[in-house]
Amino acid sequence: MRIDIGLPMELDWEIAPTQCRREDDGALVVVAPARTDMFVDPAGGEPVVTAPRLLGPAPEGDFQFSARVRVDFADSFDAGCLLVYAGPRHWAKLAYERSPQGAGMAVSVITREFSDDANGFVVADGAALWLRIARLGPAWAFHASTDGKWWEFVRHFRLDQGEEPVRIGLEAQAPIGSGCSVTFDRIAFTDSRLADLRDGR
């Protein structure tokens, strides 16, 4: 099923969610099935790439892609994410995720064969979090914001070519729980280059 969220390309569900609906204000609500995740354990084991994800071809050149994310947190690692995907062993996600201590956090996972998992900052209870992906030539940058204006630097990295052409989009997950509802809104895309990684813009 193709979904129009205002990006300059068509997006399709590679893995469909339990439920997907548009609200009257245009927000996209995605419900992840139980025990779905995207993670390749660096300690070993088979890749887990079962989370529902909505993806489309990454446009050429530099760009910025952002969305406000709200998550109905219930269990540890419930999350809503922006995703850069180049195959089951080459991808990166910027997540608004529930920690085992119950806090919402900005979390990033970079996967090049195995996942490199890093926690960012804690978000006040119940607040939304803006997430942003930027492409800068051969590199990518992740930022997160509590107000959609001041952006905290999260990661700067290269993904390089994976098994598939690079696609970008949205993802929702519930790794250990019975399901997770994520709302994506204020989705924005610009083909302008991010001028500075660390000046908050």
Topology of helices and strands:
Blueprint (H helix, E strand, L loop, with lengths): L1 E2 L7 E5 L3 E4 L5 E6 L4 E2 L8 E2 L3 E5 L5 E9 L7 E7 L4 E9 L5 E9 L1 E10 L5 E8 L2 E7 L6 E6 L9 E7 L5 E12 L11
Antiparallel strand pairs: 1-2, 2-7, 3-4, 4-17, 5-6, 7-16, 8-13, 8-17, 9-10, 9-16, 10-11, 11-12, 13-14, 14-15
Describe the structure in your own words.
InterPro entries: ConA-like_dom_sf, DUF1349. This is Regulation of enolase protein 1 (Concanavalin A-like superfamily). It holds the Pfam family DUF1349. With 201 residues, this protein is an all-beta fold. It has one domain: Jelly Rolls. Helices cover 0% and strands 55% of the residues. It has no helices and 17 strands. The strands form three sheets. An eight-stranded antiparallel β-sheet has the order 1-2-7-16-9-10-11-12, with no helix packed on it. A seven-stranded antiparallel β-sheet has the order 3-4-17-8-13-14-15, with no helix packed on it. A two-stranded antiparallel ribbon has the order 5-6. It is globular, with a radius of gyration of 15 Å. The protein starts with a strand and ends in an 11-residue tail after the last strand. The model has no long low-confidence stretch (mean pLDDT 95).
Could you give the order of strands across the largest sheet?
A: 1-2-7-16-9-10-11-12
The helix/strand class is mainly beta
Mind telling me the CATH class? Answer: Mainly Beta
Average pLDDT taken over every residue = 95
Shape: globular
Count of helical regions = 0
Uncertain stretches: none
Strand percent estimate:
over 45%
Helix content percent band = under 10%
Count of DSSP strands: 17
